[in-house]
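Q: Could you fold this chain for me?
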Amino acid sequence: MNLRVLLIDDDINLNKVIAYQLHKRGCQVLTATGGEEGLKLFRKASVDVVLLDVQMPDISGIEVLKEIRQQNASAVVIMITAYGSIENALQACRLGADDYLTKPFGQEQLFFVIEKALRMRQLQEENRQLRSELVEKFDLGNLIAHSGKMKDLLRMVAQVAHSDATVLILGESGTGKELLARAIHYNSPRREKPLITVNCPSIPENLLESELFGHVKGAFTGAIKDRKGKFELADGGTIFLDEIGDLPEALQAKLLRVLQEHEIERLGDSRTLRVDVRVIAATNKNLENLVREGKFREDLYYRLSVVPLTIPPLRERREDIPFLVDHFLRQYAGERRLRIDPAVISALQAYDWPGNVRELENIIERMVVLSRSDTLTLQDLPPHIVQANAPENPVGVSGEEGELSLEEIERRAIIEALHRAGGNQTQAAKLLKIPRHVLLYRMKKFGLS
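A: Sure. Below is the predicted structure, expressed as structure tokens.
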């Protein structure tokens, strides 16, 4: 243990014993027999751990703790208390002490408590660092939004994030509903508290109530102890209910109660618990239709849709595709310096993306993994995307001729487009849904004049 430890206790003999034990473990030890002396040493020296007696003649350990915490929030502080003053030690823990030792204690107990407190402090620091990284990652300025629709959406998100309003995110599968929910949370005042995600259809209906609201021991077969639900775990933070349109009707009334009363009731319990949770829900279904069909409660729908946000499908934000491609390329290429042929971007922009951004991400990852070149070309694209860009019934392309190479499909598509456009390259480019300079590049490649 290569630590610098400050020991503050008016018991000189105990100080000597503890200092000896710490020296044997490789620690550097500073000792003080009073609170004022201890604070002077603390201000001068950088210490990792403070062992602090609760009761001292000049100034109480509680007051010393308060002063230490004002000066340095990261130092580990362990209180030392006599058996009769455990309540003081517990009060110290509420004020920021990491743990306490009750006299008399042995050498092994001393080092166990120090190591446990250090591990906990390391986990807390890692947790803070992770939250900081998540806040940066989901900063609205880092989200890709070059199309008008996405810019409008993010402007709305920026306004909504700072409130506690319930949000309903609408959008097709793969549009990024969970990403948007995370952006709302990590740009909100609740960012330091938990974000708990629940995918409603992925949990069996008979377990979903317990998953959301928790249960008490004996509530059902297998409930061997009390268990908190997702709403309790999210207390102070945000819960994201994905695919809320699949929530069973029996649970819709319970969710409505949470939204109205901010209370939950564990399965098998008659007591209510207050929870402070912001609810963000998402669905790819038309909830208004479900309401009309009697499959979704109308009152719950209105409670959820205080602020509805609709994510446009990728086919309605094609301007974002080059930037999304660049993002995924950097994400999956690692240290490889991959370039991408402009014709690939044009092909990707012309495709309709039924799977939206998730499908685009999968395609880019596949291309990166399978490509052996430093440039991604049309040959690296899956055939269905290349073929989707060809005009209908291109010359010579038929099942009777057997399989054609991607290059041959592309060459024939260009010939057909030029034929239909009467040789006008600008019109042919429009038919192919690619820029004119890309058409000229491909014509030169295939020797077409």
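A (continued): The longest helix spans residues 107-137.
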